[in-house]
Amino acid sequence: MLQRYRLPMLIVPLLFVLVSSGLIALCQPLGARAASDVKVQYRGSGGATAQELTPWLRIVNTGSANVSLSELKVRYWFTRDSNATVNVACDWAVIGCGSITRTTGTLASPKPQADSYVELGFSSGTVNANSNTGEIQLRIYKSDWSTFTQSNDYSYDASKTAFVDWDHVTLYRNGQLVWGVEPGGNTGPTPTPTTPTPTPTTPTVTPIPTTPTVTPTPPPGNKKQVVGYFVQWGIYERQYYVKNLVTSGSMNTLTTINYAFGNISTSLRCYEENRAGWGDSWADYQRSFQASESVDGVGDTWDQPLKGNFNQLKKLKARYPNVKILISLGGWTWSGRFSDAALPANRAAFVKSCIDQYIKGNLPQIDGDPAGGNGAAAGIFDGIDIDWEYPAMPAFEGDPSRGIPPNTYRPEDTQNYTALLAEFRKQLDEIGAQNGKHYLLTAAVPSGVDKIEKIQVNSFSQYLDWVNVMTYDMHGAWDAQGPTNFQSPLYPSPNDPSTGVQKNYNIDFAIQQYLNGGVPAGKLLLGVPFYGRGWTNVPNQNNGLYQTSPNMQPAPGTYEQGIEDYKVLKKLAGYTSYRDPITHSYWLFNGSTFWTLDDPVALKDKINYLKSKGLGGLMAWEMDGDDGTLIQAIHEGISG
């Protein structure tokens, strides 16, 4: 019982007389009840100052009866720190953002730590007895993108890095305060003591929407998504292991890791095999890593049910539980059967096979190796990334030496691509409904307008949590005689000699095509390369830029001609660096060899651009090209 409700003994008889005579009626203070069976738990994120406030909330029902969410409202209290309009977005919610209403309000009498609040309401759904809603991730930002000083905000607490009860976020039921303390001291009832309610393994809140409505928020400390591709084959010549994501400092910035790639079999199924050019089950889950190569310093044993990169990702996930891990399907070489798999008669079975293998974790046991089996990889992947290169367009020309044919494509790919994404979304939601989890679905999409035109830009993104735009590889030494040009220019240049559709090969044009087509800005991630592309025998004119010559050819590279990792390029001797102020591009030239690449300055220019456009973040291809320099530049740019 709260002390402030006790009355001095001398006035109790008087009150009894007045009440019994009908002269007055006793009224409880706002929200007072004998005990509260619903409360709010909070998880803080972000620093003392931030462009966006990103609280995570969940409602817990400690009672024995279900509670209709439509009866509840939640308030998060803060200071505006300016006169700019405040907006609020729901970036991700287990119960679905579509059922959550979001409004902002101001206090008539501002308090020292609060002059405003965000109020959440619910149009549908139930929080079951002895359960919770699952997390609700908010993003509060101002119209002019000016910063908040959230260290002075009533509801903010940086020390709460995991969900805990927090009475500075208030909860109302049918208009009555039932949990928390409002700024200035209005107090709800004392909750019935309970032990913390664990997050259930089966859905506890209904309904779960069949399509996502917004982009999930990254872990605390980041304002944007930062996705990095980790490639299956990097463990060989490059000796880049999952462990290197930790030792390079990349895990301080990454919000999502896309593991590249999964292939499609001749029977149009997601599958594994150990055959050069077709599959690498050895790298995925059969190779034993030594202690020195392992994320946790513990080596594998030969008889483990899970080894290889998958086991290292599992260990990484245990250490960084907020980072999402997705399996990426396709890529340049393994997109050849998407067109067949996406046909109406094939797509449902194809999608089911991918979910069975990567989400349920049912891996085949191959070549007598004990690794694999039912559920061996369960719990590793938080979703699926589709990298179809490209719908309704020719791309990979095949590899006759390994018996790999060219990519199949057909005009119907345009509609079938959208339908395939819809089928993935449907089946991911179905399994998510079984275990109370939202599985992510993303796609890597082209930046060339000729390829963008083959996608139903006005509709495909509704099925995706976000879209990775491959804003690189716009120019390269496949055009061996040139002209030398930038592989990832931010803006066009009047000096660019390109013709036809290539005249529009720049980031701003590509992003605008998706925005004009109706893709929400917050779903678009700008792609950046962790490698450079180059030519040699380049005429020594204009510092090597925009040059052509019949003698030109791809520049020598460590692993492949015409391409080189950033970590190698940054150490080249005898080169002069240049920067183009029009395209915001960077290049190296030594009088004969020209390399186009992104350095930390170019990356920060791109981060400033994506912030100005309200984009959801960026994606990097791929992590083994960096030595920690570029990801640190991203960290500084995203956090700044």
Automatic annotation (TrEMBL):
Recorded GO MF terms: cellulose binding; chitin binding; endochitinase activity
Gene3D superfamilies recorded: 3.10.50.10, Endoglucanase-like (2.60.40.710), Glycosidases (3.20.20.80)
Pfam families found in the cross-reference section: CBM_3, Glyco_hydro_18
Reactions the enzyme catalyzes: Random endo-hydrolysis of N-acetyl-beta-D-glucosaminide (1->4)-beta-linkages in chitin and chitodextrins
Superkingdom, natural source: Bacteria
Domain GH18: 224-640
Ranges of compositional bias, category Low complexity: 202-214
Keyword Hydrolase in record: yes
Entry's EC annotation: 3.2.1.14
Protein's UniProt name: chitinase
